[in-house]
Amino acid sequence: MTNVPAVKLGLVAVSRDCFPIDLSRKRRRLVAAEAKKLGLPVKEIPTIIENEKDALKALDELQAVGANALVLYLGNFGPEGPTTILARRFDGPVMFVAAAEETGDDLVDGRGDAYCGMLNASYNLGLRKLRPYIPEYPVGTPDEVARMIAGFVPIARVMLGLRRLKIFSFGPRPQDFLACNAPIKPLYDLGVEIMENSELDLYDLFLKAKGAPEIKAVARDMAKELGAGNAYPDLLEKLAQYEVALTGFKEKNLGASDYAVFANKCWPSFEKYFGFTPCYVNSRLASRGIPASCEVDIYGALSEYMATAATMLPATILDINNTVPSDMVKKAGAKAKERVEVATSRRYHPVITRNRF
């Protein structure tokens, strides 16, 4: 995927000064080791936060390693003030997680009370009106915490992507599809930019792209991709021209953003003027992490991008157009019953099954 951010995690441990700082340090190292086993992009930050100056120092260290997402780890109770100050000042997604006590045989020097510290930190976050990611049960052993961090990565990727995303739309939002009439302000609230254009702008882009040197290479790639399914070879150059027009527009108009999606009018007049339907090109863009929704569905494009950023897989939105007729349900049920009977015969009559099949 070329249209989604790479997450770089900074792991910062905190320690309340009446608890052993070495406990937080040791537990942080164990969490980092478990995270690396899972292939997570974690950078350990050496400073352990005990006071506000430590928070500022850790912030500098996070910036030095290029961290764009932060895991704040309560290796013991932790100082909730300095911890939440770092969460407020860090410019990126933040996760809070805490250490569980490892063994009943070491509840003196090995006791951190991070469970209680997490409650205090949560209350302080509320006072500061901060909304970090906190797992449903945020206390665990190093391997459990590493798995929680793995769950944070797609969340961080979505948040980072939205903050640098631009939606390109072409055409008026249709009157008869009110679900596509998205209010713009909530997009700005998320940090998403939008650039609205007309259908004529899209047609003009398409016409101007004719003869572009990239078209033949894109058409060859399409033919290779379609293989035996290339039912309309005469259309490939037009489809390639449309793809080149869209990708060229994207590169020229990203501006201050890093990522982009499209929400384009594609029915009913599109086919008449362009001479094709854009569905195949839309799917090719989606395979690269650039969703292109139909009918100027701005929120649909946004949702597809969030799904892509979370899963690192192409995403689309399908209409639920009709109910399934009862006779089709019955036929499907009969076929399913037949498959179960065949599977049962294979399980209990292996010799007969081999002879029959």
What's the average pLDDT? 91
CATH class of the largest domain: Alpha Beta
Q: What CATH architecture of the largest domain do you see?
A: 3-Layer(aba) Sandwich
Number of domains: 3
Approximately how much helix is present in the residues? 40-55%
- Cα separation of the termini: 43 Å
Q: Looking at CATH, which topology of the largest domain would you report? A: Rossmann fold
Low-confidence stretches at least 5 residues in length (pLDDT < 50)?
Answer: 347-357
Strand percentage lies at 5-15%
Radius of gyration over C-alpha positions, nearest whole angstrom: 27 Å
Helical segment tally? 14
Write down the secondary-structure element order.
EHEHEHEHEHEHEHHHEHHEHHH
Number of strands: 9
Instruction: Write out the strand line-up for the largest beta sheet, numbering strands in chain order.
Output: 2-1-3-4-5
Oligomer: single chain
- Shape summary: elongated
Biggest pleated-sheet summary = 5 strands, parallel
Secondary structural class:
alpha/beta
Task: Describe the fold and architecture.
- Helix 7 crosses helix 9.
- Strand 6 (165-170), helix 6 and strand 7 form a beta-alpha-beta unit.
- With 357 residues, this protein is of the alpha/beta class.
- The two termini are 43 Å apart.
- It has three domains: 9-162, Rossmann fold (3-Layer(aba) Sandwich), CATH 3.40.50; 165-311, L-fucose Isomerase, Chain A, domain 2 (3-Layer(aba) Sandwich); 326-356.
- The protein has 14 helices and nine strands.
- It has helices at residues 21-37, 52-64, 80-89, 114-127, 142-163, 185-190, 199-208, 214-226, 236-253, 269-274, 279-287, 298-311, 326-348, 350-356, and strands spanning 9-14, 42-44, 69-74, 94-99, 139-140, 165-170, 193-197, 259-264, 292-294.
- The strands form two sheets. The protein has a five-stranded parallel β-sheet with strand order 2-1-3-4-5, sandwiched between helices. Strands 7-6-8-9 form a four-stranded parallel β-sheet.
